[in-house]
Specification:
Shape: globular
CATH topology of the largest domain: Rossmann fold
CATH superfamily of the largest domain: Response regulator
Number of strands: 14
Helix content: 25-40%
Distance between the termini: 53 Å
Length: 373
Amino acid sequence: MKKVLLLILVMALILSGCGAGSTPSGGDSQTEGGDILDLEGVPEAIASKEGGFRVAVVRNLPSDDHTVQFLDGARSEGEAFGFTVDTFIADNDDARFQELVDQAIQRGYDGMIISHGKADYSYDMLKPAVDRGMQVVTFDTVIEKDGATLPEITTTFQDDFELAELSLGEIAKLSEGGEPVRVIKLWFGPGVPPLDRRETVYRRYEEENKIETLEVVGPSNFQDVQGDIAARIGALLARYPEGTVDAIWGSWDEMAKGAHIALQDAGRTDIPIISIDISNQDMNMMREENSTWLSTAAVDPRLIGLVNMRLLAKQFAGEETPDNYDLEAKLIKLEDLRPDTNMENLNEVIDGWGISDAFNEPWMDILRQHFGK
């Protein structure tokens, strides 16, 4: 009997020793299902996080194509790292947006990706998150108050200046005899960071007498931007007979879609549309019969979500990230598109589209392998 008790005690000590201690960087970790993950090369802050990281992605825009793709990029990359990712959309309602961010802070998320916060409140909105030690990455958000910023936060943007240069450069090519191109401008602001950045380039084109602004049209109904702009442009067309408008510039593709609908409904084929941003719906409209939508400058919205999540993961790992980062813009012309071109295969006709190793680390590939992404 004593021998049996001694054997049981020895086995208990062995089993207890096997389960003792935490998982260091370069060791193994267990999933909830008990599968062993080889985390050799993964930073200790990532490998040893019990239960994984929880991330809130909060977007202050309507649920348009660009938003859906951005959120999909952030979610898929986060889940590939083993993170739990929750997404929230505020429909351009600033009060609701601030409420959602505050709720995420109070719920104790480990990190946040914030999209399209406005300059007049973003500092105060995000300061409590920084004070709590949360990791934050922002997109198209200006964070400044009385000259102060939040240096703990990495801010990302599309290269809005290049987006404007590429699109307005195409409009400038429409000039006849050096005369300024007469433009109906689809824009709203100020106070919307990406559109404000694009506006600085537009103003330069005006000052250089390359363009002449006939009208500025923006939405008032952010639940139906396309329909709103279609109605407004439709009403304007009667005042501008053929030959009096040289181009429509869409500083945001949701507004360009509305202009396209208005021109199609009115049977107007005399006014080219040149825009910023891209989606499957945009490309389908560009390819429609009698479409005058000639080109658009864009950054892959899914890639924006991916890169923002990589930056957040590096912050979780305690690795250095830049203060700000701009994503490269591309020009997509109607003539580039094949009948089957879509967001998944656009890289086949636009060199470098949707591809970036920015902030991708070898340890991230290890996580992707283990989480099957």
